[in-house]
C-alpha cells in the first residue's frame, strides 16, 4: 500500500530567537517565533507524515497550549510522529521538501537538513530531498517577515 501526505507551515521572524530549520541552527540576525523551536521545515514534514496516515496535524498531537511543548525540539516531535508511523508498519518511500525564504541562504545547510530528516524518519539520505527558493522579494517571505515550508511524503506498507 502507498499513502501520500502533504504539509505546509509558516513561522514569523522575531528578534532574539534561534533560526532552526530542518534541525540546523542557522546563524542569522533573527530567528523564528513559535511555541516550540519553530522549525518550520520539520513541522511541514511532520504534518505530511500525519496527513499520509490520516492522523490530523501537529497542532492536534502537540497543542500549542501545552507547556510541555514550550521551546520543544522539533526533531523530537518528528521522531514521535515517525514512531506512530512505525507502529502502523509504514516505511518511508521518499520525502520532498521546499523552504521558501528570501534569506538566510539554505544551500550550505541542505545536506545537514537532509541527514536530520532521514535520521528522524528511519530512512537513508537518498530518500529525502530538500530544496530552497526565494519568492523573488514578493509577499511575506520576500519582505523577510517569515519563512514557509512545504513537504510531500510517500509512505509504503506491505499488505
Ligand atoms: N533561502 C534560499 C533561497 C534560495 N536558495 C538557493 O538559491 C537558488 C536560487 O533561488 P531562486 O529563488 O532565485 O530561484 C535556489 O535554487 C536555491 O538553491 C537558497 O540556498 N536559500
Ligand atoms: C509545534 C507546535 C507545538 O506546540 O508549536 P509551534 O512552534 O507554534 O508550531 P506550529 O507550526 O504553529 O504548530 C503546532 C504547535 O502545536
TrEMBL record:
Query: Keywords of this protein's UniProt record, alphabetized?
Result: Isoprene biosynthesis, Lyase, Metal-binding
SUPFAM superfamilies the UniProt entry points to: IpsF-like (SSF69765)
The record's listing under InterPro entries reads: MECDP_synthase, MECDP_synthase_CS, MECDP_synthase_sf
Q: Ranges for the 2-C-methyl-D-erythritol 2,4-cyclodiphosphate synthase domain?
A: 2-155
**UniProt site (Transition state stabilizer):** 35, 134
This protein's pathway reads: Isoprenoid biosynthesis; isopentenyl diphosphate biosynthesis via DXP pathway; isopentenyl diphosphate from 1-deoxy-D-xylulose 5-phosphate: step 4/6
Cofactor details (free text): Binds 1 divalent metal cation per subunit.
- Reaction(s) catalysed (UniProt annotation): 4-CDP-2-C-methyl-D-erythritol 2-phosphate = 2-C-methyl-D-erythritol 2,4-cyclic diphosphate + CMP
Binding-site residues, 4-CDP-2-C-methyl-D-erythritol 2-phosphate: 9-11, 35-36, 57-59, 62-66, 101-107, 133-136, 140, 143
Tell me which cofactor or cofactors this protein depends on.
a divalent metal cation
Asked if the keyword Nucleotidyltransferase belongs to this entry, the reply reads no
GO MF: 2-C-methyl-D-erythritol 2,4-cyclodiphosphate synthase activity; metal ion binding
Q: What is its EC number?
A: 4.6.1.12
**Pfam families per record:** YgbB (PF02542)
Q: Locate the transmembrane regions by residue number.
A: none
PROSITE patterns reported for this sequence: ISPF
Origin superkingdom? Bacteria
GO:BP terms for this protein?
Answer: isopentenyl diphosphate biosynthetic process, methylerythritol 4-phosphate pathway; terpenoid biosynthetic process
Per UniProt, the enzyme's principal EC class comes to lyase
Instruction: Give me the residues that bind a divalent metal cation, please.
Output: 9, 11, 43
Q: Which HAMAP family match?
A: IspF (MF_00107)
Any idea what job this protein has? Involved in the biosynthesis of isopentenyl diphosphate (IPP) and dimethylallyl diphosphate (DMAPP), two major building blocks of isoprenoid compounds. Catalyzes the conversion of 4-diphosphocytidyl-2-C-methyl-D-erythritol 2-phosphate (CDP-ME2P) to 2-C-methyl-D-erythritol 2,4-cyclodiphosphate (ME-CPP) with a corresponding release of cytidine 5-monophosphate (CMP).
Concerning its family, UniProt says: Belongs to the IspF family.
Q: Please give the name of this protein.
A: 2-C-methyl-D-erythritol 2,4-cyclodiphosphate synthase
Which source organism does the UniProt entry give? Paenibacillus antri
Gene assigned in the entry: ispF
Amino acid at each position: 500500500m502507498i499513502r501520500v501526505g502533504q504539509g505546509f507551515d509558516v513561522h514569523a521572524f522575531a528578534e532574539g530567537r534561534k533560526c532552526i530549520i530542518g534541525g540546523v541552527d542557522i546563524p542569522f540576525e533573527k530567528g523564528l517565533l513559535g511555541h516550540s523551536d519553530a522549525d518550520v521545515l520539520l513541522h511541514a514534514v511532520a504534518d505530511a507524515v500525519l496527513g499520509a496516515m490520516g492522523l490530523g496535524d501537529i497542532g492536534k498531537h502537540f497543542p500549542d497550549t501545552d507547556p510541555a511543548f514550550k521551546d520543544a525540539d522539533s526533531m523530537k516531535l518528528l521522531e514521535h510522529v515517525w514512531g506512530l508511523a512505525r507502529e502502523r508498519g509504514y516505511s518511508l518511500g521518499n520525502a520532498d521538501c521546499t523552504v521558501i525564504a528570501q534569506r538566510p541562504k539554505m544551500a550550505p545547510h541542505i545536506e545537514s537538513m537532509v541527514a536530520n530528516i532521514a535520521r528522524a524518519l528511519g530512512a537513508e539520505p537518498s530518500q529525502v530531498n530538500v530544496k530552497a527558493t526565494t519568492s523573488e522579494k514578493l509577499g511575506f517571505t520576500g519582505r523577510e517577515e517569515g519563512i514557509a515550508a512545504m513537504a510531500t511524503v510517500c509512505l509504503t506498507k506491505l499488505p
